[in-house]
Specification:
257 residues; alpha/beta; TIM Barrel; eight-stranded parallel sheet; globular
Length: 257
Amino acid sequence: MIDTHTHLYLRDEFGDESPETVRRALASGVRTLIFPNVDESTMEPMLALHHLFPSETRIAAGLHPTEVNGRWRAAMEKTLSLLDEEGCVAVGEIGIDLYWDKTYRAEQMQCLEAQLKVAVERSLPVIIHCREGLDEVLEVFQRLEGGLPTVIFHSFTMDSSSVRRIREVVDAYFGINGVVTFKNASELREALPEIGIDRIILETDSPYLAPVPHRGRRNESSYLGAVRDKIAEVLSMSPEEVERTTDRNASEVFGLN
């Protein structure tokens, strides 16, 4: 399995236990883990954990939308310096988040557009964080001249109509995580056939959104199998076929061996 989105490097959550969480993930059948950056403060711990497991982990460079403010450009440029690191396979996570605060809506859109342009220049995929911001994300996509990079909607939790809206603009991939196991996520489960297994990739978004039966606990990449198994149940597939297909999807998107 490939965990395409995990923050096992966050010291506030994992402390000195980060290396052991990677080892547990590998023992559980996860063969590759992708660490998306958040802001300037997460660069060093993310790189440190990546360097401990250079063959099994990859990184993504970017500024998370909740970290965008009036001085976003300097922070963005610093986080994008990660693009020159060995093992950087994407720009992310980037996007729009208006769930908590709409103060910097315009700045978030400007920052997203700037990072999309960098991804196009570098021929890298983008990991999109979209929370209460689909209109804004699609608006930025549509005004981007010169085409779009490959797009992954990380932690996708929306419904079938949202899938169709997105596909009117871009043929995206969708990162599915533990939310798919939640009792109240029926709309997401109903959207999986609309998405199709050929556009699904697996993720945990650790330490957040632990799947059932681990819900309420700190999430880890070692729980990724629960996500795979739920997708298999919903799509009437075997877990092995879901794993094989989503691994192939992730390998193609991120250029993994």
